[in-house]
Design goal:
The strands form 2 sheets. Strands 4-3-2-1-5-6-7-9-8 form a 9-stranded mixed sheet. A 6-stranded parallel sheet has the order 12-11-10-13-14-15, with helices on both faces. By secondary structure, the protein is α/β, with parallel strands linked by helices. Helix content is 35%, strand content 19%. Helix 1 packs across helix 13. The longest helix is centred in the middle third of the chain and has 18 residues. The termini are close together.
Length: 383
């Protein structure tokens, strides 16, 4: 089958979303399909361009008008689909429903080309709280037109348990993993002991937002020491942390405020963005990983986050607070309450001290979550 994977933005080498999209394309190709990747970006001369597999199919030029054109013009993609015999379009939601996009998918439908859109997070409206006015205006436009948009498609792909989204039936899959890109966790073999106990190193990897709830873990470390905790506990944060989370979060105390309150600045280590060997080295220093601890802040109960799957593929035990049916009953998972309470560090310590499962065993438990299998589930529902 000839498939067009449609993305409404460009890519970044440091973006987890970008990597995920490429792994999804790889998964489809591993199933024997001819997959073309369509995206938007900037050429070396500064022109805004629409690409398919690094080849420009439309040059919009420079300036404000070029930016507007790329939001309204989908004829170049439609013409490509017709000329190349595309049979299926897999699009990724960018909260950008509008009349021009509706017209594009309507023409695809009339041409007999099947289509779906993946909505990575659902519901997503509450995630825009506190965003700039221009961004929230874009959401308002999306709200006006999204039901009409999805009516032109065959289904909505979701990582939630929802059976219908915006009036369209869903295909429920899990976020996947690419085992080739994730090395197996090497548990620390030699650790210095302090007071007869091994220091506990925790790791959280994310471009940090309020729904990650890392403030709950920092507060938990503070409460642990406030109540007489003696064991050394360190929290390694890998990824970008914006000022809104460090200093003036509208959803919870800022990280800096909490570290100052509890005098634990030396216990929280900000690594910034790390990749490859540098990331592996930090992982291999740690015994336990931190997933999302506050999805409830964005109104989400059931979700299948990519990070949970990456932790499991790596082979490290972890904690999270949402409902994730792939992991809720796994013995290498510690569930946190979905509320605003500080995370119990004692519960993590007890869990880690009694944990004996090997990284390879954790990894093998998620073999069915390979992207190859998850993407084939979409096709099985449609063809």
């Amino acid at each position: 089958m000839i498939i067009l994977f449609l993305v409404y933005h460009g890519f970044s080498e440091v973006s987890g979303i970008s990597k995920k999209i490429h792994y999804q394309v790889k998964g489809l190709r591993e199933n024997g399909h001819d997959v073309r990747l369509c995206y938007y970006g900037f050429a070396e001369n500064g022109h805004r361009c629409r690409y398919i597999d690094d080849k420009v199919i439309m040059d919009y030029g420079k300036g404000k008008w070029a930016g507007i054109r790329q939001r309204l013009d989908y004829d170049c993609i439609y013409n490509y689909c017709i000329q190349e015999g595309i049979q299926f379009v897999y699009a990724r939601c960018f909260q950008n429903a509008n009349p021009w996009l509706i017209h594009f998918f309507k023409k695809l439908k009339q041409a007999g080309i099947r289509s779906v859109t993946e909505i990575p997070t659902y519901p997503y409206d509450s995630e825009f709280v506190g965003f700039p006015q221009e961004t929230r205006l874009g959401l308002k436009i999306d709200q006006l037109f999204r039901r009409q948009l999805y009516a032109q498609m065959d289904a909505v792909v979701t990582f939630s348990d929802a059976q219908e989204i915006f009036g369209q039936r869903t295909i429920n899959i899990s976020n996947g993993v690419d085992f080739d890109s994730i090395p197996l966790h090497q548990s620390p073999l030699t650790l210095e002991r302090a007071g007869g106990e091994v220091p506990l190193h925790l790791i959280g990897v994310a471009e940090v937002h309020y729904w990650h709830g890392y403030d709950r873990l920092i507060a938990g470390i503070g409460e642990y020491y406030k109540n007489g905790g003696k064991r050394d506990v360190f929290f390694h944060i890998v990824g970008g942390v914006g000022p809104s989370e460090m200093y003036d979060s509208t959803h919870a105390p800022g990280f800096a405020e909490l570290m100052e309150k509890y005098q634990i600045k030396d216990k929280v280590i900000f690594h910034g963005q790390l990749f490859g060997q540098q990331l592996d080295e930090v992982f291999n220093q740690c015994q336990f990983a931190i997933g999302s601890l506050a999805r409830h802040r964005s109104g989400i109960t059931n979700i299948k986050p990519l990070k949970n799957r990456e932790y499991a593929a790596r082979g490290i035990p972890f904690i999270y607070s949402e409902q994730d049916s792939d992991f809720d009953t796994q013995s290498y998972v510690l569930k946190a309450p979905a509320d605003e309470s500080p995370i119990s560090i004692l519960s993590i310590i007890d869990f880690v001290d009694s944990f004996s499962m090997q990284p390879i065993d954790i990894r093998q438990s998620v073999g069915h979550l390979r992207w190859k299998m998850q993407m084939q589930r979409v096709l099985n529902e449609l063809f």
